[in-house]
Each structure stands twice: as structure tokens, then as C-alpha cells.
Design a protein that fits this description.
Blueprint lengths: L19 H11 L3 H14 L4 H13 L3 H14 L3 H17 L3 H14 L4 H21 L16 H15 L3 H14 L7 H15 L1
Helix pairs in contact: 1-2, 2-3, 3-4, 4-5, 4-8, 5-6, 6-7, 8-9, 9-10
């Protein structure tokens, strides 16, 4: 019988050009000293910011400590710097699994689907995507046909996923990539309703994007 979810495989990516900090971080991780490993990976990234593999290892270290928002942010950095679809798929898979562990089924399904688009041969991602869809269906059945008028409700408390997506959007805004930031937040909103907590931010970047396009 298949496991209900195939959870995150916290392996390290090694580079041919590994700094002393990265080697020490790898050793600390393998010994279970995750706090020390996190600080060493951050030091290694500061010394070699273009070494995208360090972000993947940093994300795994943060995931081990239950730092979901920070781990998602690190995996997103890894994805943005990685070049191969397989590497990008690994980031999407890890984000999806973190969200599945937290029972955030809709955004988890989104990221498993992204992983499959990048690497259709990934059977674990396919398995987890199908399971996430089942969980979403079960939640919708539990809710029944009750309709809620979201416009008359106060904004929800943003999830760790929502906060991580906003942090990524803010980085794009700092680069004056307003349309990309807006598109990112729209995709995040489709995956996670708590992103509505940042509606004012989304509206601002939409307005700026429209001004720049005129």
C-alpha cells in the first residue's frame, strides 16, 4: 500500500566549488545541528550569493526546524537561480510537501502540479498531487454548499505560505518588476485564500504596473 503522502526528502546538494562555510554547514546538517547549519549556510551564501545550491540546503535546514515561511523563501530563491527544469521541480516539490505537512492542500496541490510540469517523470510529485486533490475534494464536501461573502468578512490571518509569497513579491517590487510581483500574488491568491490579507499591497502594485504600462 502506498504511503498517504511521500514526504520531503531532505538531502543536500553538493557543489564542486564548496567553501569552508558550506562544508561545515553540510557537516552540521548531517549531525543534526540544524541551527548551526542554518547560520553557516547563510554565511556561505553571503560569500557566494550566486551558488544557488546553497539556498536549497538552507531551505532543508529551515524545514528541519519547522521554519516554514523561511524554508519556502529559500526554496523560491533556489528556484529563481536554478537553470534546469529538474532543479526547479525539486524546489516546487519541497514547497508542496511542506504545505502538505501543514495541511495547506490547495497551495500544496499548486506546487506539486508545478513540479510535474517541470519534471513529468517525477512519480512522487504525481502521487502527492493526486493525494492533495483528494484532500481538497474532502474539504469541499465537508463544507457543503455553505456560501460565504468574503467581501463582508475581515481579512484572514495570512498563512506562512502567504507571507513567504509576499516577501518574494516585495523583492520583485524592489527590482521595479511590478507586473511580475502582481502576477505572483495573483497566483498565490488562487492557491491560498489567506493571501487576501495583503489585498492593499496587491492593489498598489497593480496600480503601479498599470501606470508603467501606459
Amino acid at each position: 500500500m502506498k504511503p498517504y503522502f511521500i514526504y520531503i526528502a531532505l538531502f543536500l546538494i553538493f557543489s564542486a566549488f564548496t567553501s569552508d562555510e558550506a562544508r561545515q554547514a553540510n557537516s552540521a546538517f548531517e549531525e543534526g545541528n540544524y541551527e548551526q547549519a542554518e547560520e553557516l549556510y547563510k554565511a556561505a551564501i553571503e560569500a557566494s550569493p550566486d551558488n544557488f545550491k546553497l539556498y536549497f540546503n538552507l531551505g532543508n535546514t529551515q524545514a528541519k526546524q519547522g521554519k516554514v515561511e523561511e524554508a519556502i523563501d529559500s526554496f523560491m530563491e533556489f528556484r529563481s537561480l536554478a537553470e534546469s527544469p529538474e532543479d526547479k521541480s525539486m524546489a516546487e516539490y519541497n514547497i508542496g510537501t511542506l504545505l502538505a505537512e501543514d495541511q495547506k492542500w490547495k497551495p500544496a496541490a499548486t506546487h506539486f502540479k508545478n513540479a510535474l510540469k517541470l519534471d513529468p517523470s517525477d512519480l512522487d510529485a504525481k502521487h502527492n498531487y493526486e493525494r492533495a486533490l483528494e484532500e481538497i475534494k474532502n474539504e469541499e464536501e465537508d463544507e457543503g454548499n455553505e456560501e460565504q461573502n468574503q467581501e463582508n468578512q475581515p481579512p484572514p490571518e495570512p498563512s506562512e505560505y502567504a507571507q513567504a509569497m509576499k516577501k518574494q513579491a516585495e523583492k520583485l517590487v524592489a527590482e521595479q518588476r511590478y507586473q511580475d510581483a502582481y502576477n505572483l500574488m495573483q497566483r498565490a491568491l488562487e492557491a491560498d485564500d489567506t493571501v487576501r490579507a495583503f489585498n492593499d499591497f496587491i492593489e498598489r502594485i497593480r496600480n503601479v504596473s498599470e501606470i508603467n504600462s501606459n
